[in-house]
histidine kinase (Tsuneonella deserti), 259 residues
Amino acid sequence: GPQSSWQMSRQPFGDRFALVELINRTAEIDISRAHTDFVANASHELRTPLASIIGYVETLIDKSATIEPEQRERFLGIVLREARRLQELVADLMSLSQIEAEKHDQPREHVDLVALAGRAARDSAGAARHDRLRLGGQAAPLAVLGDPKQLEQLVRNLVDNALKYGAADSEVTVEVENDGRGMAVLKVRDRGDGIPSQHIPHLTRRFYRVDPGRSRAAGGTGLGLAIVKHIVERHRGRLDIASRVGEGTTVTVRLPIAS
Ligand code: ADP
């Protein structure tokens, strides 16, 4: 542990170097612990739907079991739902590792954030929820240096959460504005239950959920905001989450405007 590395390096390096060494090693330990936790969490998230799929398929192909047609239908529905959950999880895990792999390579394409946000938000709402979406902010184009695919994913994840956790039929607002100080400001606002403040600092952690049952029932992977955070970091931007219980949540992303 960190204690023993402190003891060991005390003699050869003296106190100052030992302290630097201690900090370095503690950081390493933290990173490897975070990695182990992540692998453990990811395995658990993958194992649960897999176990359910295997269980139901085993029952369905068991010749000695008598299964009513309605029950058969229901089991197949569960198998499909769990298989889709696996598909989403794998897609999100791949996105996350892709974004992380590119984190030092700053995106250079000029992207109009106003058009992109509108498009991605409509995409995310789809036909079924499009009447809940309100697009505001400026109409004039606003260019940022970005990776269009990742920025679309960022907007989709935020709008998806706002629709998912917003009260049924409540409005979700998406707007992009120039703050006049070199930043493009994207806001996604919902009138949902809001998030108790003690959870807010943890929301961008992988698989962190305020209400795991609700997230899973809504088809959430627990990776949406972790992906958003990584995309924002790669774009040298800022992410802020403000929320009031009983009122709703506003997520603000600031990205440098392309000169
Ligand atoms: P999930 O797939 O569970 O939605 P996210 O990483 O996107 O994962 O979000 C993490 C958690 O943050 C969610 O499980 C939910 O509890 C909370 N959350 C995210 N966005 C909102 C929102 N707009 N309103 C209320 N809670 C939210």
Summary: The CA atoms of residues 15 and 97 lie 38 Å apart. Residues 161-162, 165, 190, 192, 195, 203, 208-211, 215, 220-226, 249 surround adenosine-5'-diphosphate (CB under 6 Å). Residues 1-12 have pLDDT under 50 and may be disordered.
